[in-house]
Automatic annotation (TrEMBL):
EC category name: lyase
Gene expressing this chain: hemH
Taxonomic lineage from the root: Bacteria, Bacillati, Bacillota, Bacilli, Bacillales
Alphabetical list of Pfam families matching this protein: Ferrochelatase (PF00762)
Chief site of localization: cytoplasm
Signal peptide coordinates: none
The organism of origin for this protein: Cohnella yongneupensis
UniProt record similarity statement: Belongs to the ferrochelatase family.
Localization in the cell: Cytoplasm
Protein name: Coproporphyrin III ferrochelatase
Residue spans crossing the bilayer: none
Reaction(s) catalysed (UniProt annotation): Fe-coproporphyrin III + 2 H(+) = coproporphyrin III + Fe(2+)
HAMAP family, alphabetized: Ferrochelatase
Main function: Involved in coproporphyrin-dependent heme b biosynthesis. Catalyzes the insertion of ferrous iron into coproporphyrin III to form Fe-coproporphyrin III.
EC annotation from Swiss-Prot or TrEMBL: 4.99.1.9
Amino acid sequence: MSANVSKAIGVLVMSYGTPESLGGVEAYYTHIRRGHPPTAGQLEDLTSRYRAIVGGVFPLRENTNRQVAALQRTLDELAGEGKFVCYQGLKHAAPYIEDGVAAMAASGITEAVGIVLTPQYSVMSVGGYMKRAKDEAAKHGIALAAIEEYHLHPELIDALSKRVTEGLERLGSDEAMVLFSAHSLPEKILEMNDPYPEQLLATSRAVAQAAGVERWQFTWQSAGQTGQPWLGPDILETIERLSQEGVKAMLVSPVGFVSDHLEVLYDIDIEAAKFAAERGVKLARIRMLNDDPQYMRAMADSVLAAAPERAL
């Protein structure tokens, strides 16, 4: 254990996780299903989606690794080397959230900040990550400060608005509709006064205003098949309705996501694009943030704001 590391502030960077290979899809899906293995049909459906976007290569996990490394570099630049040490913790794949906390404890870290690669808060998403992180941190005597949202950080909004402007120029249509999207959640969050829908709308409004966009709508995507109602309308329903209203060009801006992964590369780039093309609609998508320097600064600023005073 390094003396320098033991005096640093730990930063637990959390995300949903993705399998490391096509061979790991079943174990990943089983974890999502809380230990219940998927049926053969369910497994084939998910595996085929991954196969469609990655072919023989599986780069999705590398996105998160690059984001964590980029955040580390940004914190080193802003606060000085050795002040913060980043660790990774995933919800449904190794290293799990508990593994990340345990790694901090093994390094002798006693103070940490938790942040999720999702700018908007929901008790069912960010709230769940933070509960697991805090429960595990308490076992190790680590004081963990939680960053619950950063959905209106100026650097985040600017990075997204630039991508919207770029995307509209690429589409080449003055009449294009911008569709801001995010992962749907079960409708029951509305009964809990969960801030997730309003925070997503706030992000969308801010990005549209910064990009000078007046023609935009918000829509949901990637709802789970759980037998309970999920937030809608779904992006396919929105494309259908808008196409019937005569809209011929749409730019999808998935402001609830920050990386290239299944919900973007398949649900938008393959499924929604095919659905739109069949209706004579030209559909494009903005570039994802991934390890964009502005996005990293938004996260780093949030970490600095939540960190103990001794780190500043």
